[in-house]
Amino acid sequence: MAETTTRVLRLLSLLQDRTHSGRELAEKLGVTDRTLRNDIRRLRDLGYPVHAERGAIGGYRLGRGSTMPPLLLDDDEAVAVAVAVGLAEDGATGIADITEHVGRALAKLEQILPKRLQRKVTALRSATAVGPATTGSREPDAPIPAEVLTTLAGAIRDRATVRLDIGTAADEFSDPTEVEPYRLINWQRRWYLVAYVLDSHTWRAIPVARVRRAAAGTRRFAARALPDDDLVAFVMRHVASTGWRVHARVTVLAPAERVIARINPAVGVVEAVDSDTCVLYTGADALETIAIYLSMLMMDFRVDGPPELVAHLRMLARRYTDSVREAPD
Questions:
Q1: Longest dimension (CA), the chain
Q2: Which H or E run includes 52?
Q3: Is 181 helix (H, G, I), strand (E, B) or coil?
Q4: How far apart are CA 136 and CA 282, in angstroms?
Q5: What mean pLDDT value characterizes the chain?
Q6: For every residue of 59-127, which 3-state class applies, written as one string?
Q7: What are the tens digits of pLDDT across the range 95-138?
Q8: Predicted TM-score (pTM) above 0.70
Q9: CATH for 244-323?
Q10: Residue 93 CA to its chain's centroid (Å)
Q11: Is the pLDDT of residue 189 over 80?
């Protein structure tokens, strides 16, 4: 009976992949056509809608049923689903009334995960924080290999250094770079690693999409004083000042506290000059977006750079002025 159960589960796994001919399934399972038909019947009795199609391109396929039968996932699929569900439980979806359902789904999945996979999932979840979904971006998604994420999460858990091979776009890093990893931040469909870079002795928010390879080292490190109590805020400030396509420096004629209270932390970094003036370092995907941010400040300001932003604001000022001029008699 155990052999039959194992074979039927193997059959289910094959059917979840794609359509297979009867001969192909029988050969992969090492059974006769009659045994295969019996196993198909067993799956149907369990509620799996296995459809048989005739013809040259026919075969068996798993269809949609009226209920939700159990699924078979390989190791990488199980880890990916558990991490994604965990991020949803942490509020990364923006969908109302979903937390309770997500929590139950995660509990069911974690209950049956093998220990070797549970260790990966636990490391990823404990090493990850989620940024707020409060700002948009026109930048394309930056997918990263799951192996890189699990390596970084394991190193964070073990407090082990990591050697990173980083793409050529990151000229500020030597290659390879050895870092002490502290936290993974997921924000706006991108991943960032908060790490202490040993070569430059600086704290950085490293875009994980730039990492071509991550290799965990054997050297352990003692935890340093963090650059910020809120590492999500640290990453958002870092992205605001270095991570956008366009950057700007703006002197705002208002106290720093007032500007900070007005803007989203992702929009920029504010530094006080005196009690009535501060500097805003901001960025966005386009000059037009920065102009919108500045108009929403509702405060007097002076653009220090770049010149392209100054020219764009002058053009907008002319248009606004022309739009309110009185028509001639």
A1: 97
A2: strand 50-53
A3: strand
A4: 15
A5: 80
A6: EEEECCCCCCCCCCCCHHHHHHHHHHHHHHHCCCCCCCCCHHHHHHHHHHHHHHCCHHHHHHHHHHHHH
A7: 445 556 666 666 767 666 778 777 777 777 777 777 655 444 44
A8: no
A9: 3.30.70
A10: 11
A11: no
**Taking Cα atoms as reference points, which of 194, 201, 198, 205 lies closest to residue 219?**
198
DSSP letter (8 states) at residue 131 = -
Let me know: does 193 contact 128? Beta carbons within 8 Å. Answer: no
Q: Identify whether the C-beta of residue 153 lies closer than 8 Å to the C-beta of residue 143.
A: no
The CATH architecture one would assign to domain 2-62 is Orthogonal Bundle (1.10)
Structure tokens given for 32: 């006769």
What token pair was written down for 126? 């404990």
| DSSP conformation letters of 259-277 | HHHHS-TTTEEEEEEETTE
CATH 1.10.10.10 domain position(s) in the chain: 2-62
**Distance between CA atoms of residues 305 and 312, nearest Å:** 11
Q: What is the pLDDT of residues 283-329, one digit of tens each?
A: 888 899 899 989 989 999 999 999 999 999 999 999 999 888 765 55
Q: Which residues pair with 220 in a beta bridge?
A: 160
SS (H, E, C) 242-255: HHCCEEEEEEECCC
Q: Which residues contact 187 (CB under 8 A, 6 or more apart)?
A: 130, 131, 132, 232, 235, 236, 239
